[in-house]
Amino acid sequence: MSKTAYSALCARHVRMYRLSHLHSIASWDQSANMPAKGNEARSLALAEMGGLLHQLATEAELKGLLDAAAQEDLDDVERANLREMQRAWRASNALPQSLVEAKSLANSRCEHAWRSQRPANDWSGYVENLREVVRLAREEARCLSAVTGLAPYDALMDQYEPGMRSAEVDRVFGDLRQWLPGLIRDVLEKQSRETVLRPVPPFAQAAQKALGHDAMQLMGFDFEAGRLDESAHPFCGGVPEDVRMTTRYREDDFLPSLMGTIHETGHGRYEQNLRRDWLGLPIANARSMGLHESQSLSFEMQLGSHPGFAGLLRPLVVRHLGDQPAFEVGNLNRLLTRVKPGYIRVDADEVTYPAHVILRYEIERPLIEGQIEVEDIPALWDAKMQELLGLDTRGNFSDGPMQDVHWGAGLFGYFPCYTLGAMYAAQFFAAMRRETPDLDARIAAGDLASVFDWLRSRIWNEGSRWETPELVRRASGEALNPAHFQAHLRARYLG
Amino acid sequence: MSKTAYSALCARHVRMYRLSHLHSIASWDQSANMPAKGNEARSLALAEMGGLLHQLATEAELKGLLDAAAQEDLDDVERANLREMQRAWRASNALPQSLVEAKSLANSRCEHAWRSQRPANDWSGYVENLREVVRLAREEARCLSAVTGLAPYDALMDQYEPGMRSAEVDRVFGDLRQWLPGLIRDVLEKQSRETVLRPVPPFAQAAQKALGHDAMQLMGFDFEAGRLDESAHPFCGGVPEDVRMTTRYREDDFLPSLMGTIHETGHGRYEQNLRRDWLGLPIANARSMGLHESQSLSFEMQLGSHPGFAGLLRPLVVRHLGDQPAFEVGNLNRLLTRVKPGYIRVDADEVTYPAHVILRYEIERPLIEGQIEVEDIPALWDAKMQELLGLDTRGNFSDGPMQDVHWGAGLFGYFPCYTLGAMYAAQFFAAMRRETPDLDARIAAGDLASVFDWLRSRIWNEGSRWETPELVRRASGEALNPAHFQAHLRARYLG
Ligand SMILES: [Zn+2]
Ligand SMILES: [Zn+2]
After folding, report:
1. Is A264 annotated as catalytic?
2. Which residue, B99, B145, B361, B483, is the most exposed by fewest CB within 10 angstroms?
3. How far, in Å, CA of B355 to CA of B389, rounded?
4. Which ligand has the shortest distance to the CA of A286?
5. Any chain A CB within 8 A of the CB of B345?
6. B334 found inside a domain
7. In this entry, which stretches build a coiled coil (chains A, B) (predicted)?
8. CATH number of the CATH domain containing A434
């Protein structure tokens, strides 16, 4: 039996993959390099390409090819690839091209303006652009909802974490809300008896950059297939063959940039280790945003805050920043595990981080569902920050709803993935420890290969071969179980 | 009378303009940023886009639209735009899409390998890739020749300098060959009596970079619409709204990078000053490669080697590199006008530069016409370098035929433009002096506005409004006249 239709589908996907390569690099450049006056032309160029890719993903022949391929004699891998092609087709065909182009333009404009509005704390300027972004996101949610039968917010979330529903998020976040406040209280109480020396600034940007490069090397990043640059909001972009990570530097503190870089390195290695022989086809893609975040959190939290990690980091820190009492191993470990409620999600420790995510989830869901408007965000933000972390954020938009790029870039339904990722990561490391009982000693000795090999074979190389629940079960031996996250936090912070 | 067809053509050109924006930025990135392992995927992505742009430029409907638009009631500007659309259509339709894609892939591969082969003096490795590039360039020349009725080499050259023929190049270069060797001899004789202090290295890269930025500012570059980065071979890329210039640094000498940067700034300002209200349409484009080079040489040679320019440069040099005896104004001027036969075209002074171009022209023309093969290049190169500049280049491929990116990138018929550009520039400055008799005093006083305003109104803002001979006549009051170039060299170097 021939595979004509399947082969034709593969050729079309490879073509889209190649064209989207240019979109990815130009998007990275827009954040990392582009001067101000280039933005209008870049936004128009990216929108044109977004429209073209959408057009290619919705060509009339595709439906027939997908139906024909389903009747062909495919092996298991080809069948999984076809399943992902079908999923991509459903997602693309839910949206009219005019909406795709309008979204690209509005998101790009909002995000670009945000780069100067955030430092100026200019909420009213920002909200003018955000209103249009939200309007289009609601329209998108309606379109996706009509096709999938899901509720509007669930339909958006399903793009990033296929199969996840807000009912399930409610259950998991409900579980968290039960024990998290008490755990934060206990940890703060325990840590209040510890003495922690703050590193004494300044830390020159060039030295931090060199330190970041060494840390990426320690974490196995392949610099022949990627770069580290700077942007207002750190991200991991580019393409699997050429991963473009970004960070930002503050002269008064080096840890946020360093640990942010280690975080993005987790994303970067996932991309760098997707199977080369599948690249260009949907089956090669990273499985989901939650899984992606599980890899960055494996690097930043499971490894980065591991009691043995300070000993690995110390020589690099001393090499680039010189020595000082704060860099003593015990103190470095206390710095890396310090819990302190704060304004900024990306700077948050792993104990308070879930609170930031719950807050965003509780705002973006009613925002998409039309129960609130963009003007209502600040008051809700202030109330929830007070309630969850006891912080006063009134009037501080820069460190409040303007701190993240997501909403301005039209990403709604994405935030829950961060905390799902933290749970996956804890579950994966629990599985590793069952298989390799001396894992913690190995990590402390700088032998990170056991961790990387496990992640490579169980997660990175699997791409989108399995749907998320199956991938998690195959990798860790059981379905998603939030108990591992709680056990991890208790052992590390109260053990 | 409606302009339906003309409007439809404009919309199609704007779409191509936006998509080619992504190609330009990704190409720049390939030279300035990309790590080694990214090359295969990037080459495939650029080839895919090259093929797509070619497909859009050759769509069946275009011929009918072009014919219909010719019957519509267009004003003079629209008619000039239509003329350029027709020219673009003829050029695009001469080549089958498979050839366009093969060329893109072969050129990209050859150029990438060249980046490591050149430092290794690896001619035999380079020639393996170059052979395929030449094979495809000959095929291209045959296709273009069939459409235009021009000889194969003329057909290639016509893409870069429309209307220029090798008979005319023979005439101009024949004129040069008459007086250039004697002039070089006289200048070397005169300069042998001068004392010139060499700047004492080292010159830190960061200081040179800052100096280059200041020089670009002096020359009016808009940093909100462009950048300066590094690449193996300096070039000016990007898009008019976001010009991406590159340079390279040597710690033992700062002048090659500085003057190269000033050169590229001339290209950059031409692009930055193309008419905004025409952008996206062919009429907005820079007129030709020879005209483009006339702008870079106006900056690098007409201004950069002007007797008053050393006084403008000195404060910048001293600010970034500290002072030393070599930076005294008179000595700096002698350095900037020093004539010395050398291996490297891009480092050549303006007196010996034409010899480098004649040499390349005399090799690439028979190469395209099939009278010689790539294996014959080194022997011809060695013989002509000896004959024209008295230099022995045997075995030194890095500083010989591997010094330029052009041939590896498939650019044949381009080299003559450099010397045509030098002649245009000399003619333009002669015209400026007739209109502004105190021009030289203004330049010496740092008042460069007269020069920039003249170039902006006569050249930059005109885009492709006129064909080259008409643009030159309108700008300077007469047709191309090589006597201005000779007079310029005699006045500056023997005056
Ligand atoms: Zn992340
Ligand atoms: Zn040039």
Report:
1. yes
2. B483
3. 7
4. 1
5. no
6. yes
7. none
8. 1.10.1370.30
Q: In the structure, how many helices (H) and strands (E) does chain B have? A: 20, 3
Return the HEC string of B144-213. Answer: HHHHHCCCHHHHHHHHHCCCCCHHHHHHHHHHHHHHHHHHHHHHHHHHCCCCCCCCCCCCCHHHHHHHHH
Q: Which residue has the tokens 């490069």?
A: A213
A155 in a structural domain: no
Q: Does A88 touch chain B (CB under 8 A)?
A: no
Using pLDDT thresholds of 50, 70 and 90, give the confidence band for residue B479.
Answer: confident
A279 contacts in B (CB within 8 Å)?
Answer: 41
Q: Is there a domain that residue A252 lies in?
A: yes
- Residue in this structure with the two tokens 């996101």, named with its chain if needed: A137
Q: Is A220 helix (H, G, I), strand (E, B) or coil?
A: coil
Please state, for a pLDDT cut of 70, what percent of chain B lies above it: 100
Among A348-352, A415-419, B285-289, B464-468, the least confident range? B464-468
> How many other C-beta atoms lie within 10 A of the C-beta of residue B441?
11
Query: From ligand 1's centre to the CA of B140, what distance in Å?
Result: 48
**pLDDT digits 0-9 by tens, A100-147:** 889 989 999 999 999 999 999 999 999 999 999 999 999 999 999 998
B18 contacts A44? CB cut-off 8 A: yes
Check A84, A101, A264, A350 and give the catalytic one: A264
Residue A401 and residue B226: Cα distance in Å, rounded? 32
Flag if A21 and B45 touch (Cβ within 8 Å).
Answer: yes
Per residue in B219-278, pLDDT (tens digit) is 999 999 999 999 988 899 999 999 999 999 999 999 999 999 999 999 999 999 999 999
Is A214 touching B (CB cutoff 8 A)?
Answer: no
Among the partner-chain residues A23, A45, A227, the one whose CB lies closest to the CB of B33 is: A227
Q: Is the full-model pTM beyond 0.80?
A: yes
Judge contact between A273 and A267, C-beta under 8 A.
no
Nearest to A224 among B36, B227, B239 (CB): B36
Query: Which residue in the block uniquely carries the two structure tokens 């170059």?
Result: B130
Which of B35, B36, B225 is nearest residue A38 as measured by Cβ atoms? Answer: B225
**Structural domain contains residue A7:** no
Minimal CA separation from B72 to chain A, in Å: 28
For chain A, say whether B40 makes contact (Cβ under 8 Å): yes
Complex ipTM > 0.90? no
Host domain of residue B456: 167-494
